[in-house]
Amino acid sequence: MSDVGPALAGMMCPIPIEEYPHVTLAHGGGGRMTQMLVERMFAAAFANAALGEMHDGAVLTLPPGRVAISTDSFVVSPRFFPGGDIGSLAVHGTVNDLAMCAARPIAITAGFVLEEGLAMEELWRIVRSMAAAAAEAQVPVVTGDTKVVDRGKGDGIYINTTGIGVVRDGFDIAPRRARPGDIVLVNGPIAEHGIAILSVREGLEFESPIVSDSAALHGLVGAVLDAAGEAVHVLRDPTRGGVSSAMNEIAQASRFGIRLEETAIPIAEPVRGACEILGLDPLYVANEGKVLVIVAPGRAGAALAALRAHPLGQGAARIGEVVDDHPGRVFMKSRIGGMRVVDMLSGEQLPRIC
Amino acid sequence: MKYVDEYRNEADIQAFVSAIGKRVTKPWTLMEICGGQTHTLIKSGFDRMLPESITLVHGPGCPVCVTPLEQIDRALAIAARPEVIFTSFGDMLRVPGSTTDLLSVKAKGGDVRMVYSPLDAVKLAQKHPQRQVVFFAVGFETTAPANAMAVWQAAKLGLDNFSVLVSHVLVPPAMEALLGAPDNQVQGFLAAGHVCTVMGYQDYFAIAERHRVPIVVTGFEPLDLAHGIHMTVDMLEAGRVGVENQYTRAVTPEGNVPAQRLLKEVFVVCDRAWRGIGVIPMSGYALAPAYASYDAETRFDVGGITAVESPLCIAGEIMRGLKRPHHCSAFGTACTPERPLGAPMVSSEGACAAYYQYKRTA
Questions:
Q1: CA dihedral of residues B283, B289, B293, B298 (deg, nearest 10)
Q2: Which of A202, A269, A340 minimises the CB distance to B45?
Q3: Nearest-neighbour CA in chain A from B293: distance (Å)
Q4: CA B326, CA B360: separation in Å to the nearest integer?
Q5: pTM here?
Q6: Which numeric CATH code is attached to B5-64+171-245?
Q7: Is the N or the C terminus of chain A less surrounded, counting Cβ atoms within 10 Å?
């Protein structure tokens, strides 16, 4: 989450800015310019033994067990936002996807698609932030790729990360495993990432700035699995589409219903205010540092305590349960005591007129 | 959250529900005018808490829903022009025209941008003097003052690359038209609180008298609606006609006078077509002659466009309170938010979207 890892703090951009103030097509051409970018910037920032080999791929020795693999592409605009940037997000997103499989992340790869003309200084900021996030998560970036596209054919920078991890022995975490009676937990206030992005993108100003929750969750997930063991049935990070889409996917996969309690769902006041003003439903807004934990009722207390004991889970809450009724669908008891359907998001949420 | 939580308090709302239950002796059909009210009712589940003898029908107060298909087709034609930056509130972008929608025009290369205020569109016009910036000025009396302000400012700045595609409509003539229809079923109205914040509620007394109905100016939170319904039921049961104000924290009888002054300066009242309902005399705004040069319809010569509605869509009957969304044969099958036949399935204030999102059981 910090902007710069200790080793890179204060480190200047290693590419001579006066000579190469911007990314050029030559930086992706495979020749000397590419080599300079890879060696001086990426290898220097992500420094680790596997990457240091400068080979076509990374050769790793994995601990015994089942392997989880996940990939995600990051195209976020704006590239920098309160609480993170496209670089840290690219690390957190893939680390979290592995964590949701009950996997301990071992390594990630990084593929960069750069647009001709991107400021070298900006690329360095992003790479530095990515390296810092990887260092903090203790997940090395072991191999990568760089392509440069013509000006106008990309949005500055796109990053793809693929992660590999080893699944905890004996765990079978999957949406289909939700069972009636299971409790739904979340590790803190929802909708922060989406509103933070929106506030920058649309130039909206709030009294108190809204900061993205982007964070690597594998440590927190590890603590929950330690505390509740195999009673944990489902883990899901409610990213795009928010809590409602994640809940609907789990209801559909398990063929049971889910019932949420509106008053129990944690949401910070500034985020709630922003959603009220814009006419957005926080249940549909993206998160990048939240996990929904579905756990058998007997271990729900232990799981909740483990979440709350972790720095990324202090605002954890019990928000609902899995039920026999309305299979495949999500209902919510509203603040005023009424019941309503919580549907999947259709398209993008658009602010209303009045 | 202050000014929100007080109006979503379960105990207070339950108290109104039981008071309504005690007061009601016969079946009544009420209409909430505004789509924002419809969504609050359905989203909070309040509609299911009311006694069965009270039927809520959902009114035409959804700006996107009543904007005529022709006007959307005009917007699409203008937005596709290379010199144009077409700006709109977000809610309008997905609404289907005859063949496409604004998001699809954007996908094909049109410069379509969502703005949060018409004044942002004026700023865009200042920033891009080589481009034509058009704002889609839809809505009721609520959005009209800000849209009038945008035109007024553009005139003051002497901007000749800014224009508005006007599709403004007015609530009182629509209520009058609904009540005057031979098949009308509405016995009492929850008037749209935010419209009254701007316009006051003096105009409603004559309507209430003429059609012998109670009209209650009502807010948008669940407690406002519970209170407003209780007041309307009380008037109906007592045989009282007239206008009462539930939304006193925001609405005064005379409304926002400076906003009304600006509306008079920039707009004139004219006949307007309402999607699904038809032309209602003197039910909308057009730009006043002094501001006619800001009219996108003449600037881009799109006046001649005509359009045909889907024969399956019953949006008009829904907005006149004759039917409800689940009475439609296409609801949730041929018509979904992903492939809408009519605007009420797309808009965040549309009744069909509210039923689909919060009430669909299948």
A1: 50
A2: A340
A3: 25
A4: 9
A5: 0.89
A6: 3.40.50.11750
A7: N
